[in-house]
Every structure is written in C-alpha cells, then in structure tokens.
Design brief:
Radius of gyration: 14 Å
Structural class: mainly beta
Distance between the termini: 17 Å
Number of helices: 0
Number of strands: 9
Order of helices and strands: EEEEEEEEE
Strand content: over 45%
Shape: elongated
C-alpha cells in the first residue's frame, strides 16, 4: 500500500501512526522467501513467529527465507509504522520463483 504524503484514513495525521494488517493465506508446502519494502518500519510474522524485522526509520528493504512451511492456511501479520515523509509498505512471498 502506498499512501505517499497522505493520511491513511480521515482524521489521522500524515505522520506518526502505525497499522497492523493480518490475514489467512494458503501455502503449498515448501521453502518461502519473504520480502518487505517500506518507509518506515516493518515486521512480518507467520503464525506469530517473527520472520522479517525491519523496525527502523527510513526506507527499508529486508527479506528472509522461511524453510519448510507446511501446506495449508497460515496467519500472516504485518506491523508497520510511519514516522514522517512518504508512507508505504509492501510484503510478498515467493515459492520456487513464483510470487504468491
């Protein structure tokens, strides 16, 4: 999501806010690369286990491999904070070269 210099919702300032995004996603079994890009901090969890940690100000581009993800639905949670300036966060994961 890219908010640029705008507030994410009416009534909220453009700086100094945070958000949590969470959902259930289906995974085929295998090893996954998780990639997070943001401005400012971002953390990514799978089933409440921290797998990507970029919790600092400024542009962030971090990734991590999580091996042997079991098949089925898993909870993915993304925590994000906006300090100042541009606001965006993007998280994706890959299995065997294909974006999920």
């Amino acid at each position: 999501r890219n908010w640029g210099a705008a507030a994410p919702v009416s009534g909220l300032g453009t700086d100094y806010w945070s958000a949590v995004f969470e959902g259930q996603f289906y995974f085929t079994p295998g090893d996954y690369d998780f990639i997070a890009q943001s401005d400012d901090g971002v953390r990514v969890y799978i089933d409440n286990l921290l797998i990507v940690n970029g919790w600092f100000d400024g542009r962030v581009a971090v990734s991590n491999r999580f091996n042997q993800v079991g098949g089925g639905y898993h909870s993915i949670r993304v925590e994000y904070f906006e300090r100042s300036g541009s606001a965006y966060v993007r998280v994706l994961w890959e299995l065997a070269g294909g974006v999920q």
